[in-house]
Write a structure and sequence with these properties.
Layout lengths: L14 H4 L5 H5 L8 H18 L11 E5 L2 E4 L2 H17 L2 E2 L2 E5 L2 E9 L1 H4 L5 E9 L5 E8 L12 H16 L6 E8 L6 E6 H23 L18 H4 L9 H13 L26 H30 L22 H10 L4 H4 L7 H7 L4 H8 L40 H4 L1
Parallel strand pairs: 7-8
Antiparallel strand pairs: 1-2, 3-4, 5-6, 6-7, 8-9
Bound molecules: iron/sulfur cluster.
The site of iron/sulfur cluster has 16 residues, from α2, α8 and α9.
């Protein structure tokens, strides 16, 4: 994760960006991170996981606690967070070889939230990255690197993941300092809210080869950063910029990047129908709209490839406009207005509770009770499996909703019959009623 990488400009979490767009770090220079509730939630989940390891306990122990994120911002550990963080913690304990006779004691060497060196890759003095967890097996043969992803977005694959490669290379350096010589590295992404652990195993020499490519990308990005005053804002800017969905996703310069804006504009115009018969009257004031059914699937697919990039750009432009208005800057044609009032809450809950007691309100009038979630119940009843079995029978879990994913997504495709095949063929001659009698 990346609560780490505030020391590192060329961070592992940004590697997909700076290795594909050499100008990214230069373009981001001086721009602040924009806080987001998703990022805060992820930080809270990582913190709870770390507490579990540090305090040798389970996530349920922190249910209802508030995790401090930054001054004035906390995130509540709700049932959902307890469940998903526990899934991650359980998985790490398994990978570390938890001993059944002595829980929280591991066969292999487990390191949690440890800073590992990355300066040998990026050339940035003293830079480190914080690996969520890394493990050296007891026989010294396998190095494991684990990364918790708390997002609900599209699944992130371990294979080819540059962030994991950088953590692995850093952890390898630490392991080698301790005298270990692992033969291979197992990199695992734990995207707990969308799927189970996703693994990628490669021999150490392949890790080294891949890191040397990354080193070249970092050096090019470093050079572009050093001479940024000579190209940013000039006609040659585009030579340093390379928009792509993966690369631009977390770029802080997205809203103001000329190259990305050009790609979005081109994409939107190229997405208009290509064949003359698909056009309506081009002299009309409003552009022709292709009726949904007439759009060829190939045309839809090529547009779909760019949807993520365009959506990310739209969100970034909206956020930057809001940021500038909130800072008192003018954005022509836009202003701030008051939204809906938020829900009412007690200024001081304890004071309100005392006041209600003095009014002699009954307990069931004053308090709302909520039954514990299946995850918390499972922990509570762990010492009495028979009672848990009874309760387990009362759990239901809905089917996950269907969503669109690219063909190379690792999940199995769900086959859906075209609606037309569900009907009988009504064009065949109707049977003679007399024959049926
Ligand atoms: S938005 Fe994309 S193209 Fe522009 S600087 Fe960032 S990574 Fe590069």
């Amino acid at each position: 994760m990346a609560a780490d990488e505030y020391h590192a400009k060329w961070s592992p979490s940004g590697a997909a960006g700076w290795s594909t767009c050499v100008g990214k770090i230069a373009m981001e220079d001086g721009l602040d991170d924009q806080p987001s509730s998703y990022a805060d939630e992820g930080t809270a989940a990582h913190t709870v996981a770390t507490w579990c390891f540090e305090q040798t306990t389970d996530a349920a122990a922190f249910a209802g606690r508030y995790v401090p994120i930054r001054p004035g911002v906390t995130v509540e550990v709700d049932d959902e967070m307890v469940e998903y963080v526990q899934a991650y913690v359980d998985a790490i304990r398994q990978y570390a070889g938890e001993k059944p006779e002595s829980p929280f004691d591991f066969e292999h060497e487990l390191n949690v939230e440890q800073d590992v060196p990355i300066d040998h890759i990026t050339g940035e003095d003293g830079a480190t990255g914080r690996a969520d967890a890394w493990i050296l097996t007891a026989d010294g043969e396998e190095l494991q690197v684990h990364d918790l992803k708390y997002g609900r977005g599209e699944p992130v694959s371990a294979e080819g993941n540059l962030q994991l490669l950088m953590y692995a290379s850093g952890a390898l350096r630490v392991a080698e300092l301790l005298g270990a010589e692992p033969k291979h590295v197992r990199m695992v992404i734990h995207q707990v809210r969308t799927s189970g652990p996703d693994e990628w195993v490669i021999p150490i020499h392949e890790l080294q080869e891949r890191i040397s490519y990354l080193r070249v990308g970092a050096a090019r990005s470093y050079d572009a950063y050093e001479c940024r005053a000579t190209w940013i804002g000039t006609p040659g800017e585009a030579d340093y910029l390379n928009p792509s969905e993966k690369g631009c996703r977390w770029c802080k310069a997205k809203a103001t990047c000329s190259a990305l804006r050009d790609v979005v504009v081109q994409t939107v115009f190229q997405s208009l129908p290509a064949t003359p018969e698909e056009f309506d009257d081009l002299t009309a004031d409003t552009p022709a709209v292709v009726p949904q059914q007439s759009a060829p699937s190939a045309w839809l697919a090529s547009s779909m490839e760019k949807v993520g990039l365009v959506e990310d750009w739209c969100k970034a432009v909206r956020a930057e406009t809001e940021r500038r208005l909130l800072a008192g800057e003018k954005v022509p044609g836009y202003k701030l207005v008051q939204g809906r009032k938020p829900a009412r809450k007690w200024a001081d809950a304890e004071q309100a509770e005392q006041a209600m007691k003095s009014m002699r309100l009954k307990a069931d009038e004053m308090y709302t009770k909520k039954v514990i979630s299946p995850t918390v119940a499972e922990k509570v009843l762990a010492p009495t499996p028979r009672r848990w079995k009874k309760l387990e029978a009362l759990i239901v879990q809905g089917e996950p909703p269907l969503s669109v994913a690219p063909q190379n997504d690792q999940r199995q495709a769900v086959e859906v019959k075209p609606v037309i095949e569900e009907f009988d063929d009504l064009t065949t001659e109707a049977p003679n009623v007399d024959d049926l009698i």
